[in-house]
Design goal:
By secondary structure, the chain is mainly α. The chain contains 4 helices and no strands. The N and C termini lie far apart (62 Å).
């Protein structure tokens, strides 16, 4: 009885940490989008006030730099929270892909 309570408590603690990690990622993503929209708006507004054309404004790397560099950080945060499994490359990926290709080949032979 005590062992099952201990295992249940461990599972709860692990699940709670996972939820906290996922929530932290989504907060990071939300802050990333809001801050970058704000910064891009300020940069674009400032450049438009200085008389730059639309092409000059959109080609200015300053508009995109925080999106790019902070985006790399967001990607690694996502990777840390969700891992490579979310990319579809879990442990049985090769077997699933082989089966999928064999099924396609069988289907192609049947259609001939």
């Amino acid at each position: 009885m005590m062992e099952s309570d201990f295992m249940q408590e461990q599972a709860y603690i692990k699940a709670k940490k996972r939820v906290k990690d996922i929530k932290g990622f989504y907060i990071h993503l939300m802050v990333y989008v809001l801050v970058n929209v704000f910064l891009s708006g300020i940069i674009i507004f400032g450049l438009s006030q200085s008389g730059d054309s639309f092409n000059e404004i959109t080609s200015n790397f300053g508009v995109y730099s925080t999106w790019v560099f902070w985006g790399i950080g967001v990607f690694f945060h996502w990777l840390g929270v969700f891992g490579f499994k979310s990319l579809g490359l879990g442990t049985d990926w090769e077997e699933r892909k082989i089966k999928e290709l064999m099924d396609k080949e069988d289907q192609a032979r049947k259609n001939l």
